Amino acid sequence: MIEIDKVSKAYGAGKSRFMALNDVSVTIRKNEFFTLLGPSGCGKTTLLRVIAGFVDPTEGSVTMDGQDLLVLPPHRRPVNTVFQSYALFPHLTVRQNIAFGLEMLGKPKAEIAQTVDEMMALVQMTAMADRQTGQISGGQQQRVALARALAPKPKVLLLDEPLSALDFKLRKDMQIELKRLQTETGITFVFVTHDQEEALTMSDRIAVMSAGSIRQIGSPHDIYEQPAERFVADFIGDTNFLPVQVGTVQGDMAEVTLSSGKTVAARAVLGGQGGGTTLAIRPEHTRLVPPDQGLLQGRLENVVYFGTDTHYHVAIGKDETIVTRAQNLPGSVAQFKTGDTVGVDFPAGVGQVLKD
Ligand code: ATP
User: Fold this and answer.
1) What keywords does the record list, in alphabetical order (predicted)?
2) pLDDT digits over 330-349, tens only?
3) What is the CATH number of the domain that holds 164?
4) Residue 74 Cα, ligand 1 centroid: separation in angstroms?
5) Which of 16, 45, 58 to mutate to test the pocket of ligand 1 (most atoms within 8 A of CB)?
6) Can you give the residue range of the structural domain that contains 256?
């Protein structure tokens, strides 16, 4: 429903010209929870502001349901924005803050009262309706800001790192709450975050951005399981990068030879036709085995306990390291200790040959 086509944004001119967005194309579908994910400065906020109308792109088009958005001023676009700072009026009550936008739109009093009641129920703030927003907690302010943005029933809600100010526990609760709100209202959410876990847990689809460009678009599962390139594999989750030689490629599978000389099948959806390249493999897809077994052999350098799981760092050769992760099941005992020679194994088909 939102078509972003070949959008670029340049700041400055001449030598100091800087491309905050570089030829970005993406379609955001109706009713989806769509996330822009990437490191600081990659252009996420700029793209969100292009949709909102606060930034004019240098090139490209943005349409919603076929209608050109770029000709409309921000307040005429069928979108609403929730900013990182919430921007609530501290001396107004919860009820007054939520009603504010509706009053500006000139809605009838009875309709405003009804919508505000609905919104307060939705974000579970009814009990605090008459408290000033300067006197409620950060998480509660967050929910009021959301209710205020949802009240005019925009087709699209743009959210710019809305949870970043919250502490860990509250952020986790709000992630679930936001997802619930999105599902209940059916409003399209475009969500900006640099937190990969947040993106994976909440989104229907994710666009991973780097240096003004979109590197990959896909479901959380696709992005995590089939990263298209090294940047994506590195930014999302933990990944081992192993040097390999690619042999026969059949369909989307390739036979790769590891540094040990042993071969294994790996996914090669996006190329890797022969020659030396890199195999990306998640730590949880590998396991430690006795040294004479498995695909690789090395020295166990480090054992790091994380509560739910333990990470084992294995030095394979001079420049090759692999991290293996094992869940700590009740009663499980460590089989290996630092300094041991160990084997590392992983099943066929779980590694991903990367585009170089
Ligand atoms: P963060 O997560 O840190 O907010 P971001 O991915 O949202 O980062 P943007 O705010 O979109 O990044 O900025 C992208 C790049 O454009 C940054 O390098 C930033 O310095 C630059 N930039 C943003 N606004 C301007 C401006 N008005 N003038 C010049 N450069 C700008």
Assistant:
1) ATP-binding, Cell membrane, Membrane, Nucleotide-binding, Translocase, Transport
2) 877 778 899 999 999 999 99
3) 3.40.50.300
4) 19
5) 45
6) 239-346
